[in-house]
Amino acid sequence: MKKIMLDTSVYGRLIEDLDIVEKIGKLVPGEYVIYGTRTIRDELRDTPRKIRLRERGARMLLLSIYDSFVKKNHHNLQYNKLIDTLARDYFKEYQRQKGSLSNESMQHDLIIIATATIYQLDIVVSDDERSMLSGSAVKAYSIVNAKYGLKNPMFKKYGDFKKEIIRRFSQYGI
């Protein structure tokens, strides 16, 4: 069973592709356990109410998908001082790696990765190659985690994750 965190950007892609949502839902909790954070849920809640998709509010759709995946209280991972410290160290190293975004721009991404690292999740899925999955950021995570003896989660782009889901279903003949 893989422990996975979906970045906020992935939920935005999922509302455009509800077939994948249904397939992921069938793999939870047998093959995947999906975790979330207050940071991700708050970002989803910040979606303007007036945005509509398929006659529904996008905000409500995003939140309902999140809630259906992150089913149990212990799957909503809590923020703590270790996560705060790790996120700050990631940003310092990100700057040393010539990362160009501000702390404000990177803060949520760094908290999400720090949370996944502290809680020892296997995979973080994101569609955000500009910040979270940029070369400077990924290198910063690796350097800081090595310094503290922490294991890096595996990073997957949304497109690769989607292909994996489709492949799993074709294997089962579904």
Describe what this molecule looks like in 3D.
- This protein has helices at 8-14, 18-27, 38-45, 58-69, 81-96, 103-118, 135-148, 158-171; strands at 2-6, 32-37, 52-53, 56-57, 76-77, 123-126, 154-157.
- With 174 residues, the chain is an alpha/beta fold.
- It has a single domain, classed as 3-Layer(aba) Sandwich (Rossmann fold).
- The strands form two sheets. The chain has a five-stranded parallel sheet. A two-stranded antiparallel ribbon has the order 3-4.
- Helix 5 crosses helix 6 and helix 5 (81-96) packs across helix 7.
- It is globular.
- The protein starts with a strand and ends with a helix.
- The mean pLDDT is 92.
Low-confidence stretches: none
Structural class determined from secondary elements: alpha/beta
Here the CATH topology equals Rossmann fold
State the major sheet: 5 strands, parallel
The helix content, as a percent range, equals 55-70%
Order of helices and strands: EHHEHEEHEHHEHEH
C-alpha geometry: globular
In CATH, the architecture is 3-Layer(aba) Sandwich
CATH superfamily: 5'-nuclease
Radius of gyration, rounded?
16 Å
Strand content: 5-15%
Q: Features of this protein?
A:
single chain; 174 residues; alpha/beta; Rossmann fold; 5-stranded parallel sheet; two-stranded antiparallel sheet; 56% helix
Q: SSE layout and pairings?
A:
Elements: E1 2-6, H1 8-14, H2 18-27, E2 32-37, H3 38-45, E3 52-53, E4 56-57, H4 58-69, E5 76-77, H5 81-96, H6 103-118, E6 123-126, H7 135-148, E7 154-157, H8 158-171
Parallel strand pairs: 1-2, 1-6, 2-5, 6-7
Antiparallel strand pairs: 3-4
Helix pairs in contact: 5-6, 5-7
